Amino acid sequence: MPASQWSPSAERILRTAARLFAVHGYSATSTRDIAAAVGVQQPAIYKHFAAKDDILAALVKLGLERPLAVAASLEVVAAPAAVKLHRWLRESLQHLLDSPYVLASILTTPELERDRFAAERALIEQLERQVTDMITQGLREGDVRPINPVTGARLVLVLFDAMALPEFAVSPPEIIDFAFTALLNDPSHLPELQHQADSLPLP
Amino acid sequence: MPASQWSPSAERILRTAARLFAVHGYSATSTRDIAAAVGVQQPAIYKHFAAKDDILAALVKLGLERPLAVAASLEVVAAPAAVKLHRWLRESLQHLLDSPYVLASILTTPELERDRFAAERALIEQLERQVTDMITQGLREGDVRPINPVTGARLVLVLFDAMALPEFAVSPPEIIDFAFTALLNDPSHLPELQHQADSLPLP
DNA sequence: GTCTATATCGGGATAGAC
DNA sequence: GTCTATCCCGATATAGAC
């Protein structure tokens, strides 16, 4: 359920801010820039968000809610970890792509290192742990080739940024193909794995 | 020759600014922050750099000079493109790692989209072309598996960011291993390819 | 080449009318 | 819930003494 808690006006602000943050960076985007792009005066923003930081925090939550929820629900599904990882990656990339909020680069913005965003960083770290766990499990099951699971998770997650680049972005299938060719012991299993991933039940 | 054109004082500013930019972001780092970390007063910066933007521009050039030069000199070496790409990747990752200037994340900072940094963006695009060319050639030679060369280049380049992450970063060998396993038709050739890459002559 | 002092501007945020 | 007007602060950059 995307942003159901936000009013239409707040959603417009979020969408507009996300685009500006992604292109120019968080600190380089002023609340006046956001307001102008939305078509209102600058103080109007503050009827929807108490502070500029709250806009960024909301965007991070919007971007991570689904990837976190998908990973959590896959945890209790009986299936090879490599299959679950594939499904998770596809869902997450597609979520970020479909989202009217341009989120991929927002999740790596350095401003998140500030204390104010400790809660948002915790969400990112939780997601890293979930991905790390899937890779660890895939290693035990023999599908994933020898790799430090933390390293593997980091490398998979940095690939998300390829969708956020200027000009023509890399598509989710291309990222999935690259990631799984790098991760699997036997990449020839990829089509079969892809098929199994598509049939996984997701609430 | 790293930063030979800069005075020792200017180098201290560059090193310090690079670290702060990488952690907090360019716009979120003030010239006062830089000066305080260097141990001088804020206006002292301006005896070495006419503007804050010039510091960022200098860092981008410092980070790209070597990768660009290595790629250019490899162009005229007679060797398989996959071997040259391997050597280029190792040199470039090591350069960024060894550099007292923390550069990986600086090369993707959104502020570079501003007109002021058109020249610096051009350098990045040139590097993307060089990598794309190596992948295209590797494809023709049969070493690289079917992939859009532009996509491949983008994915290889985003992996650089894995070295810049907070906490424990991913090491160059891990990135090389991941990238080439994803790129090669036959990853079992990787050790041999690595050996050949190490013996390539570099001026 | 570094200092103090300062000019100037833009940014985040609030007050209060409508 | 949006507007105008405004406050206050921090940021970049300059001037001029040492």
What's a concise summary of this model?
The structure is a homodimer of 203-residue chains. The first copy, chain A, contains eight helices and no strands.
Question: What are its keywords?
Answer:
homodimer; mainly alpha; Tetracycline Repressor, domain 2; 8 helices; DNA-binding
Tell me what the structure shows:
Chain A has 203 residues and is an all-alpha fold. Chain A has a domain at 60-199: Tetracycline Repressor, domain 2, CATH 1.10.357.10. In chain A, 60% of the residues lie in helices and 0% in strands. Chain A is built from 8 helices and no strands. The first copy, chain A, binds a DNA duplex (18 and 18 nucleotides) through residues 9, 30-32, 40-44, 46-48, 50-52.
Estimate percent helicity of chain A: 55-70%
Instruction: Briefly note the structural class of the backbone of chain A.
Output: mainly alpha
CATH class of the domain at 60-199 in chain A: Mainly Alpha
Order of helices and strands of chain A: HHHHHHHH
Strand count, sense and barrel status of the largest sheet of chain A are: none
Strand runs of chain A, count: 0
Pair of chains with the largest interface and how many residues each contributes: A-B, 37 and 37 residues
Rg over alpha carbons of chain A: 18 Å
Work out the helix count of chain A.
8
CATH superfamily of the domain at 60-199 in chain A: Tetracycline Repressor, domain 2
CATH fold-level label of the domain at 60-199 in chain A: Tetracycline Repressor, domain 2
Assess the beta-strand content of chain A as a share of residues: under 5%
Overall form of chain A: elongated
